[in-house]
Design a protein that fits this description.
By secondary structure, the protein is of the alpha+beta class. The protein contains 5 helices and 14 strands. Strands 1, 2, 3, 4, 5, 6, 7 and 8 form an 8-stranded mixed β-sheet that branches. A 6-stranded mixed β-sheet has the order 12-9-11-10-13-14. A hairpin with a 2-residue loop joins strand 5 and strand 6. The radius of gyration is 19 Å and the shape is elongated. Pfam families: Imm33-like. This is Imm33-like domain-containing protein. InterPro entries: Imm33-like (IPR056509).
Length: 220
C-alpha cells in the first residue's frame, strides 16, 4: 500500500479514502460490506467527489445494505452500480448513450452540482427523487416541445413531478408514466430542476425558465 503515501487522503467518519494513479479507494468499509470500494478517477479529485463519498459512507454505515455484485442504488438522483472486482466493489454510473454503466462518477457529480446550484439560488432544501421513481408526463414531451414542470405531493413510487407541454389537452389526451432517469436522459435541460421540493413549478417562456412556488401544490 506504499504507493498511496504521496497522495492526498480524505477522511469521512472513520473511513479513509486514498488514491493511486487510476483509482480512488476506501479503507474501512470492508467490515460493513465485506469489500472496499474503488472509483475510477477520470480527472476527479477526492475533494471534488467528497459529497458523493459522504453519501456512500452514510448509506453503507447507516442503512447497512447487503450489497451484492450488480447492486444498483440512486446516488442523489442518478443511478450507480456496485461492480465486484476481486477485493473491491468498483462504483460505476449509468451512461444512457452507452446503454449501460461506465467508469467514473463525472455525470453523477455534474447532475448533483446543477441541482444544488438551482436549490441554493432559491434557498430551497433539495429533495432528490429516486432514479426509478415515476414522473407523470404529457406524451408530447417526447416530441421535443418545452416541458413545464410541477412537483406535487406524491407517494412512492410517484416522484410528484408532472411534465407537460402547452399543447396538452386533457379532453383528448392522456398522461403517461416515465421514470425520473428516463426523463432526465430524454430532456437534459430539465435535470437542474429535479431536486426542487414539492410546491415548485417551472414554466418556460422562450428560452427562459420561470420558477415559482405554489403552496396549494403541497396541500392538495
Amino acid at each position: 500500500m506504499g504507493f498511496f503515501s504521496r497522495n492526498k487522503t480524505l477522511k469521512i467518519r472513520n473511513i479513509e479514502f486514498q488514491s493511486d494513479n487510476d483509482y480512488h479507494y476506501s479503507k474501512g468499509l470492508q467490515s460493513s460490506i465485506h469489500k472496499e470500494i474503488k472509483i475510477a478517477k477520470t480527472n476527479l479529485t477526492l475533494e471534488e467527489l467528497k459529497p458523493i463519498l459522504q453519501y456512500l459512507v452514510e448509506f453503507i454505515q447507516d442503512e447497512k445494505p447487503a450489497i451484492k455484485n450488480g447492486e444498483k442504488i440512486t446516488c442523489f438522483s442518478w443511478s450507480i452500480l456496485f461492480h465486484e472486482v476481486a477485493d473491491f466493489f468498483e462504483i460505476l454510473e449509468v451512461i444512457p448513450e452507452q446503454q449501460g454503466f461506465g467508469e467514473g462518477l463525472n455525470r453523477t457529480l455534474h447532475i448533483l452540482k446543477q441541482q444544488l446550484s438551482v436549490c441554493n439560488q432559491l434557498k430551497a432544501e433539495p429533495d432528490f427523487p429516486q432514479f426509478d421513481q415515476i414522473v407523470t408526463i404529457d406524451p408530447l414531451i417526447k416530441t421535443g416541445l418545452q416541458a413545464n414542470l410541477f412537483r406535487w405531493k406524491g407517494d412512492y413510487p410517484d416522484s410528484g413531478w408532472v411534465a407537460m407541454t402547452e399543447k396538452f389537452n386533457e379532453e383528448t389526451m392522456s398522461f403517461e408514466g416515465m421514470t425520473v432517469g428516463q426523463l432526465m436522459t430524454l430532456r437534459p435541460e430539465i435535470v437542474q430542476f429535479m431536486a426542487l421540493p414539492i410546491g415548485f413549478k417551472i414554466i418556460w417562456q422562450g428560452n427562459n425558465a420561470n420558477i415559482g412556488f405554489d403552496k396549494n401544490m403541497i396541500d392538495n
